[in-house]
Write a structure and sequence with these properties.
Keywords: Exonuclease, Hydrolase, Metal-binding, Nuclease, Zinc, Zinc-finger. This is GRF-type domain-containing protein. It comes from Trifolium subterraneum. GO terms for molecular function: 3'-5'-RNA exonuclease activity; nucleic acid binding; zinc ion binding. This protein has two domains: about 120 residues, Ribonuclease H-like superfamily/Ribonuclease H (Nucleotidyltransferase, domain 5); about 80 residues, no CATH class. It is about 30% helix and about 10% strand. It has six helices and seven strands, in the order αβαβαααβαββββ. It is elongated. Bound molecules: zinc ion (ZN). The site of zinc ion has 9 residues, from loops.
Length: about 210
């Protein structure tokens, strides 16, 4: 995030999301690309948690450009600036300025793409504490909708288990299934993770589970 003319993190995420939508990327098969795992695994995750911001789910899986870079150039222990220069590009802008780092990461990515490198997801934030979030609970005021537990504990190591996004309360959401007969019957969605039997959901978070 740019510090000089900064916006808040939630505003930046919102603008970024709108930009993805405008560019037709949001519903396409796309991936976040970063240099190292720090941004997605630690920084964004913890800051969103701390500020109780709902993090868009596409930040839960990413390509750590270090991996393809080291496969192509062999150099593993170098920083982004060094990597850009090893690849034969001139560094542009300031190092450790978020925006310039992002631009140079993109240039390095473009170079590897031109070389025909086939990219795939290198890391993801898996469902953590999913077992606790998926306790069967009832929505007394919404009889057509019941929380759903599609995965049993024995499946917890299964890599296809999806992440649980955060609801507006800043906690892991709960996965539910539409039980009401109709075109959406059986469809999965994420709902408020702060649900309690006595008070119901604490926020209006709702998102379809994309399959
Ligand atoms: Zn909530």
């Amino acid at each position: 995030m740019e510090v000089d003319r900064g916006v808040t993190l939630s505003e930046a995420l919102l603008r970024h999301d709108k930009w993805l939508e405008k560019k037709g990327i949001k519903n396409a098969n796309f991936a976040v690309v970063t240099w190292s795992n720090w941004d997605c695994r630690v920084m964004l995750e913890s800051e969103c948690r701390f500020k109780k911001i709902r993090k868009p789910p596409y930040f839960n899986r990413w390509i750590n450009l270090r991996i393809p870079f080291s496969e192509v150039f062999g150099a593993v222990r170098c920083n982004l600036k060094e990597a850009v220069e090893i690849a034969g590009l001139a560094w542009q802008g300031r190092a450790h300025c978020g925006l310039d780092d992002a631009k140079n990461t993109a240039r390095l990515l473009a170079l590897l793409m031109h070389r025909g490198f086939k990219f795939s997801i290198t890391n993801s934030i898996m469902w953590q504490a999913a077992e606790r979030s998926l306790i069967w609970r009832q929505y007394p005021e919404q009889p057509s909708v019941y929380p759903y537990c599609p995965f049993k504990a024995k499946d917890m190591n299964n890599p296809i288990i999806p992440y649980l996004p955060y609801c507006y309360c800043g906690v892991k959401s709960c996965m539910n299934v539409i039980r009401k007969p109709g075109p959406k019957q059986g469809c999965l969605f994420y709902g408020c993770g702060g649900f309690s039997v006595t008070r119901g959901p604490r926020c209006h978070y709702f998102e379809w589970v994309s399959t």
